[in-house]
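Changelog excerpt

This revision adds worked examples to the README so contributors can see how folded entries look when concatenated. The first example is reproduced verbatim below.
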Amino acid sequence: MNRNKEQMLDFLVKAFIADSDNYKNMEIPEDETQKKVVLRSLMNIRIPRKMDDKVLEVQDEYLKLCAEEKRIVEIKDIPVVKDIFLFGKEILQDLRLML
């Protein structure tokens, strides 16, 4: 992970912990993988409400960088069995439907 992305992750974890009523006292893990898990969890459970624009800008940039690192799978690349597509989360990081 590049330094800028690492700084964004740290910033976002701190911001989402501070924003949370239930997890304000949560200890921030040292491990990068665990920080990602914490951030994803906090983003998923957050109740929709106003958040600082700076946090939203950093979040948007961070998520774009994460998406760029993933392999994008096109619908045409997925094998067809009797018109049924079978895929799993581990296999597909992103699916673009090209209809």
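The second example, added in the same revision:
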Amino acid sequence: MRNDVGIVDFFAMGKTGLPTGISNVDVLGCSLTILRDIRACGGTEGSKKDISGDVVDMLASSGLVELLISLLREFEPPAILKKTVRLSENQEASSTPSKSCSYKGFRRDVVAIVGNCAYCRKHIEDKIREQDGILLLL
């Protein structure tokens, strides 16, 4: 997934959902959908073992949460926030542009994965806090 994130052109605004017709974006989007669903299909109270927990802990220990928080930090604010935020007159016009989401629902998928991973896992919640990720998730 790190390789796909590096290949995708985030400066081209994605207006559609999946599939987009761009293979790198589609692979990244399907990967995020699978990751989101892994934790969402976790064991119920009656099940003997929650196998998704093992997968989530393995992915979290490999740096998935940090990667997703850093992606959220690099993206431009959601459209609803862009309308309310006024650029100051002193801001340079030549500042580096923020990355756009590569497809409609990308930010939602990233937030869902981080939220699902943090569910009932204090150590992941702590990682999010350490990276100042709470406001990014809201």
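Reviewer comment on example two: Residues 2-42+51-85+97-137 form one domain. Residues 23-40 form the longest helix (18 residues).
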